[in-house]
Amino acid sequence: xxxxxxxxEVNYLGSLDISGNLLSGELPNCWMYxxxxxxxxxxxxxxxxxxxxxxxxxxxxxxxxxRNNHLSGNFPLPLKNCSSxxxxxxxxxxxxxxxxxxxxxxxxxxxxxxxxxxTPGLKVLVLHSNKFTGSIPLELCHLDSLQILDxxxxxxSxxxxxxxxxxxxxxKQLNSSPLFPSHNGVYYIIWGRTxxxxxxxxGREYVYDKTLGxxxxxxxxxxxxxxEIPEELTDLHGLIFLNLSNNHLQGKIPVKIGAMTSLESxxxxxxxxxxxxxxxxxxxxxxxxxxxxxxxFSGKIPSGTQIQSFSALSFIGNPELCGAPLTDDCGEDGKxxxxxxxxxxxxxxxxxxxxxxxxxxxxxAILAPLAFNRAWRHAxxxxxxxVKYKLxxxxx
Length: 396
Fold this sequence. Notes:
This protein is an alpha/beta fold.
C-alpha cells in the first residue's frame, strides 16, 4: 500500500505516523516516492528485517522513530544520506555492529550565498536496548546540537570520551527551537512542540513531547564502559539527567560535579567507583533521584537537606560509607562505627571456629567422670532422685 504512487498525494505528504499498530514483516523499499516526509513514526510494531536502501532518499526527514520493533542488521547505512535528521530513535530493536563514525556528520550547517536551506543538526539520538558493540566513536563529539544521547543497554566498551564535555547544547540552559525548514521553504513545527521521544529516567520510561526541546540528558548505562568519569562531563551545566550505572567505571566522582546544578536525576550505581562523595553534590538543589549504591565509596555522606532527603537505598553496598541516611554513624576518623574493631573479623572467625571444640570439651568434662567413676555416678543419680521426690512432694 505504501508503494502505490498517487501523483501529488504521496509526493507532498509531510508526516506519516502509523506507530502502535500490529504491522509486521519487512519495511517496503519504496521510500523514494515519499521524498517530502519530515516526520516518520513506525515505532511499537512488529517490523523485522533491515532498513531498506530507499530510505536514504528521505533527505528532508527531520524525525525518525523506529523504536520497539524487531529490526536487525548493522547500523542502517541508508540513514547516512538523511542529513536533516534532528530526532533518531532506534531503541528496543536488534541492531548489531558498531556505531559508525559518520554519525558525527549530522551537524548544524547554515546556507551559503545563494542557498536557501540548512541542516539543523541532530538533537536526539536514542539507541537504547540494542546489541551495539565496540567503543563510542569520537566523531559523536562533533554533534554540537545534541541534547539527548541515550546509548544505554548495549555492549559498548572502552572509555567515555572526554570530548563529550564539548556538547554545547548540554552546557547551556535550553530554549525550545521548534522550526524546521523543508526544501520548498515551508517550515514544519516539530522540534520541542509536536515531536516526541521515549526516554528512560529514574528507572522508568517517560514520553516527552511539548517539553522535549527543553530536555538535556545522557544515558550510557548497562554497557561495559571502563576507566574514570571524565572531569569534562561536569561542564555540562544544562544536563537534567545523567545515568552511568552498571558499567565498569573506576576512580572518583569528579569534584566539580556540584556545578551541574540542573541535574534532577543522577545514577552512578553498580560500578567500581571509590573515594569520598564530593561535598558539592549536596548543593544540587533540583536533584530528586540519586543512586550511588554498590560502589566502593568511603567516608561520611555530605551534610545537606537535599542529599540527606534520600533513603539509605541510594547508598547501600558501600561498606566504608557512613552517616545519615545510613544507620552506620561515623567515627572521629570518618569511618563507620561498629561493635567489631578493625581486626574484629579475625577475632570473630576464631570465636566461631572454637565453638564446636568448646562444646566437646565442656561436654566430656562433665560426662567423663560419670562414665568412668562408679561412686560419682551413683551419687549423681541419688541427687536426681532426691530432687524428683521433693518436687513431687511439693506438687501433692
